[in-house]
Amino acid sequence: MNTDEEAAARADLYLALATAFQVPHLAGFAEAMRLHLADDLQELAGELGLDCGEAVSQLREEMARVPDQLALLQCYSALFLATSAPAWINVGRYLDGALNGGTVRAMEEAYLACGLVRNAALRDLPDHLSVVLEFLSGLYGAMAEGTPAVDPGHFLYGLVAPWMARFEGDLAHAAAQDPQPNPYHPLARILCAAVQRHAVEPPMDPALRRKHQAMLRARGMYAARGITAEDLEEIRAKLQERGLSTAHIPASAEEAAQRLQLATGRAAHA
């Protein structure tokens, strides 16, 4: 396989995964996943040299347990859209700890660099996993024909790889806790294998690289621990220094977490 063929195969792989992580509301979606998705992913993984055999077999088994379209939609909703959903389909939350944070803006900048403008009619945020993977597919498609404005390997390294393991881990935990069919965990395993193979660290000054890695670690730790009482106190102090009101600041970390959970639920169902 030459370089152009490799890029085209990667484009097909990420497009297949982007489609699989869409909300499954279209008629025939579950049947198409059951009949074709595992075969397509197995073929593409073989072409790309990805070790996904076990995950593909798991995908077949899980899809065989999905009786119909409604069951697949219920599975998707329970995993990603419910207020207490165990995994975040808006993947920027894994890095930012909230919806519509800095990761979303970084993704939007990458989309704009490639001439992609958000359609106001679309409900999904730029960090919805399906949107991210479709963008990657487009980058690899452009690479097969020339040089894209954004390097897909660098995009994977900076904006996908940092949260990928946590996303897969959340789905693994959900699968272990719930006996219902869960085809999204093996899909995440396949995506993990692809990201690990395809992510490329961009050239960077050593000092800048250390700073960047420290920022990623700090972002991950902050997202994992949530907002603390110390964070709230610091926010109040900064607002007071500027003569601004602090009335809207939650009184406690527990109240902040409740507000975030409610906001997430409203955004997911909007």
Keywords:
69% helix, TorD-like, 270 residues, disordered C terminus
Describe this structure in words.
This protein is mostly helical and 270 residues long. The chain has one domain: TorD-like (Orthogonal Bundle). The chain has 13 helices and no strands. The protein has helices at 3-20, 29-48, 53-64, 69-81, 93-96, 102-113, 129-145, 152-159, 161-177, 184-198, 206-225, 229-241, 253-269.
Number of domains: 1
Give the end-to-end Cα distance, rounded to a whole number of Å. Answer: 44 Å
Number of distinct beta strands: 0
CATH class: Mainly Alpha
Largest sheet: none
- The residue ranges in which pLDDT falls below 50 over 5 or more consecutive positions are 263-270
How many helices? The count is: 13
- Percent of residues in beta strands: under 5%
CATH superfamily: TorD-like
| Percent of residues in helices | 55-70%
Q: Report the principal-axis shape.
A: globular
Which value, in Å, is the CA radius of gyration? 20 Å
Architecture, CATH level 2?
A: Orthogonal Bundle
Q: Which series of helices and strands comes N to C?
A: HHHHHHHHHHHHH
The structural class is mainly alpha
InterPro entries: DMSO/NO3_reduct_chaperone, TorD-like_sf, TorD/DmsD_chaperones
Keywords: Chaperone
Organism: Ramlibacter montanisoli
Protein name: Molecular chaperone TorD family protein
